[in-house]
Give the backbone structure.
Amino acid sequence: MSTLQERSLSFAIRHPRVSLAFVVVVAVGVTLILLFQMEQPAVVYEEF
Amino acid sequence: METVIRFQTRSSLVLLVAILFVFTGLAAGSRNEAVLDWLNPDRRLPLEADQIPRLADKGAFVDVGSRVFLNDIPRSDFSGGAVSLFGASTLASAVRVDLLPDVYRRYTHNWGIPAVSFWNESQLLHYLIDYEGLLEAGGEKNLVIFFIDYANATRSLYFKGLFRYGVYRWEPEGGLYPTPEFALVRAYIREHARATNLLNTIWRKYTRPSRRKQRREVTSELVAEYQAAAHEIMSTGGEDWEAEMDVQVGVLEDMLDLLRSRDVRVMAVLMPAASWYQEMDYLPALRRRLEPLFDEKGVDLFDWSHLLPDEDFSDHAHYMSSGSKVLTEKVRALIDDHVRMLAREAG
């Protein structure tokens, strides 16, 4: 029985483009989410 | 094994490129005119378009103050002289420098920040002079105009929130300074803050689709609400609002002395106030302090407090586009001589 890591590597080697696309989607998504949730607006008078 | 190493190297590089791509995309997006138009379709609307409440254009930022500190200040060029407009949200939203002809836009900076006190304006003024080179072209090439509301003469709860990003260091009883990091690190912190602002602005565009406020019918209940809010604003400096007003006017006096000692041309304007503020004590009390002060310093004080009828107010203190049009034109007339002089000297 192979480990999860071995199975992922084996998948990555067989399907490199799919794996890289996955890396890109995760990297972009995580970066956007982290940047988004870091903002703490000054709430008073923000409408002006 | 070699295949695994190659894949891991490649995926690490792809990861890095993806993160950099997000950062550069957001940095470019927050500066792109088409993106700004998409975020706020009203921003280029001519002031005579219709009778609508005018909000300040926040650009790609969640509030006006963040736009001033993260965008306007770092992108300013004072090398040919400047016209600096200091004031609160009434100035920020009403005086539309962006709608003036190019020659005015080149030199004029609207530093209007919601709910600032004279103390906050003094911190900003000192910062601009000491760290951004506001007077680098020489004091005589600078014109500073203070746009004064009664609420300038108390303490602000809003100002400190603008320094949450770490680009500036703000001391409540001291000054405003750049953080001591290397320029590259500061640039990174600033871009980071711009990115968070852009993402949140996009989110708000869809979660709060109505940026345009509706004007409420003025009833006696609404006037009572506005006046109660004014009492609350003026009590932020403590129960004795007149003592705090004296302190704040003292700070204004220091600014006038500083600017005059550097040969800067100075003017001041009492901003239009609606009838519900005219009948309260705060504005007359401020006027009683300002008139002798400006007389003594030989600085022009323009009293525009009765300039606009109540119909030109969109809420307790801000203006409809009709009021904004009147004010923008009057400011244009006020700065006209100075702007033309700067343009002439620039050739």
